[in-house]
Amino acid sequence: MAKPKLLKEVLKNLFSKPATIQYPREPTPVEPDFRGRHYADLRKCIGCSLCAIECPAKAITMTKIPPQYAEKVKKNPRKIYPVVNYLKCIFCYRCVTVCPTQAYTTTNEYKLASFGKITSEELSLKTLAE
Amino acid sequence: MTVSKIVEIPIVAEIPVGPQHPAIHEPIMLKIYVEGEEVVKVEINTGYNHRGIEKLCEKNSFYKDIFIVSRVCGICNTVHGDCYVRAVEQILDIDPPRRAKYLRTLAMELERIHSHMIINAIMAEIIGYDTLFMLIMRDREMVMKAKEILTGGRVLADYMMVGGVRRDIDEVKRDKILSILDKIEPRVKYYMKLFEEDVTIEKRLRGIGRIKPDEVLKFSLVGPTARGSSIKTDARVEDKYDAYDEVPFNVIVRDEGDSWARMMVRWEETIESINMSRYILNHLPKDGNPVPDERRLPRRFPPGESFTRAEAPRGELTYYIKSDGKPNPYRVKIRTPSFNNIINSGFVYLGHTLADVPVILTSFDPCISCMERVIVIDLKNQTKKIVPFKYISLGRV
Amino acid sequence: MSEERKEVEVPEELEFAKEYIEKSYLMKPNRIVIEIKPEKIREFLTQLSKTLEDRGKKFYLSTIAGTDLIDKNVIQLDYHLIILPPGQGIVVRTYLPRDNPRIDSILDLIPGAFSGECETYDLLGIVFEGNKYLKRGFFVPIDITEKNIFPLRKDSGV
After folding, report:
1. Which of B172, B50, B154 is nearest to B107 (CA)?
2. How far is B8 from chain A (nearest CA, A)?
3. Global pTM?
4. Residues of B with CB under 8 A from a CB of A
């Protein structure tokens, strides 16, 4: 019986460090421009709804700005802002590239598993809070 | 009572290698009729994975369809996007700059490398060689990292847009991808030598599933299946789309025609792809911005039709688009390579034993979600008609 | 708006078929389209394979595509062929009446048409006579085949 050729490789791997990364105890290396969580910056948004029209997955809904922030947005005549539903989003970034004022902030956050519905509502409203 | 006829029915057992089975990795049903250990007849049943993409494309605009069409298949998503975008550009008469063509070719070649590595790993797993499966998958992670540096996503690279690509590449990223390619090349050469010389692989793969050259043309088999049986056909050479008229490469053809030849064609194509990617990265032209401004793309589409082909890792992919002046397309017809390779190939299994069926099916590179995309609603299982033997003996079948 | 189509001359390999070609024009990028009556498709394909064999070339059937043109009340059926070695694409196009689309099957000449014919029957309702493997549940799920709808027609309501 012939000796299998893989024997040398197997013996070498027996004494070296395993290649698995013990996620979630260690973080996996991710590029800084990976397509992760994105949200609208309300200081630049003008409420044109182009992102909601162009989304292929229909994941963006336009909702009214709550009344306590209504004076802070002067550029937004209809007083609506986009809310991204992350459970429907496919992260294609069509909304980011088609926005006329480039109002979306992008991050490389990918840990988005959750039990309930997660949206970008708090992140967008926090940009107005300061 | 005199007996006028005696009908003898040999024991032909029907074995459904059904949609959920540990031997094959895809939701397809092969009804195999077996006499002893030898396969006598094969029926292929499909329809477990419909998603209705052709009808869905008629309800959305041309630009949204780029993202919908990329999700036909997870492994060959850049090629679907590229073929669709080229068909739309033919209708609009737009020619993208040369730098954009080179970047598109780079994304498609990186995808070809990781797709060939995964099908060889699956073949190793099916014949029982789990160690080799794990080693190939560990090296494939480096290629996924290179794709993430280039496009922004590991598997789904939404990289194609009408008029160019969506991201540009600078010097730092280019050097990172070149160093990854330098690390991959000796590993791929080691695996290729292993497939040529190892005893286990030779006994399981050589002589299984032999196809003659004129059968390949009559049954319209495409891709490495055809190139492993001495038919020289490659859509990159025939159509010369994107940057393939300026990047030098060879078309790999093998003469044996069995499963071993098909896997060796894929390893040699991987080496060719690594050389092509290196050539592209060292010779990127600098004429113009490859990223079009997505806010200024045309909204009106003239009526017309076009037919484009591309060379996916599994074979030849064709798109036919017809538009009639509205912002939605009138008809989008997609024909993926797995469609021809799997459904038309019921004749290859005859005469082999039952244990060879997964080996032959995997050597065709099945990608079932590529294969069925025609009308939506929800996933439902087909009903099977199982006829017990007593009906055959009573003559009621 | 009607499309502009450039009329082209038939290439020399297809000179034998001049008697039943009605129109020929160009589809982008550089594929030649030939329009034929539906009854002559089998003759055309047998003569094409014989002519190409004399010159040492081969061909294969790449795609069968059907489109529902509801305004003109016809169904358009395309056979896309690729001729090796140069890789030139040819499209053979016929029009079938919409209320009774029947055409002869080419399964005995080219067994590779099995998948294309079964899919086109299941989705558009074109009956290929002579193909005994046609069945309704090939791709389409059961709740639509029960209502006897062909999904890709424009008036199907899906």
Report:
1. B154
2. 45
3. 0.86
4. 60, 63-64, 67-68, 71, 131-132, 135, 138, 148-149, 152-153, 156, 158, 166-167, 193-194, 197-200, 294-295
Q: Return the pLDDT at B144.
A: 92
Q: Which residues of B touch A90 (CB under 8 A)?
A: 67, 71, 156
Number of domains in chain A: 1
Distance CA B206, CA C103 (A): 43
**Residues facing residue C31 across a β-bridge:** C27
Instruction: Give the lowest-confidence range in B372-376, C39-43, C49-53, C54-58.
Output: B372-376
Q: What is the maximum span of chain C, computed from C-alpha positions, in angstroms?
A: 51
Instruction: Categorize the per-residue pLDDT at B278 as very low, low, confident or very high, splitting at 50, 70 and 90.
Output: very high
* pLDDT of A3: 62
Mutation pick from B293, B294, B296, B299 vs chain A, by most beta carbons of A within 10 Å, is: B294
pLDDT at B378: 22
- Residue ranges making up the domain that contains A102: 36-126
Report the distance separating Cα C122 and Cα B288, nearest Å: 47
Residues of A in contact with B60 (CB under 8 A): 56
Per-residue model confidence (pLDDT) at position B304: 87
Q: Confirm if B26 and B371 have CB atoms less than 8 A apart.
A: no
Q: Report ipTM for this prediction.
A: 0.86
Pick the CATH number of C12-145 from 3.30.365.10, 3.30.1050.10, 3.40.50.1400, 3.30.460.80: 3.30.460.80
- Residues whose CB is less than 8 angstroms from the CB of residue B6 and which lie 6 or more positions away in sequence, other chains included: none
- Domains, chain B, in order of start with CATH, read 72-301 (1.10.645.10)
Residue A110 within a domain: yes
Contact C89 B237 (CB under 8 A): no
Contact list, B71 vs chain A (CB under 8 Å): 90
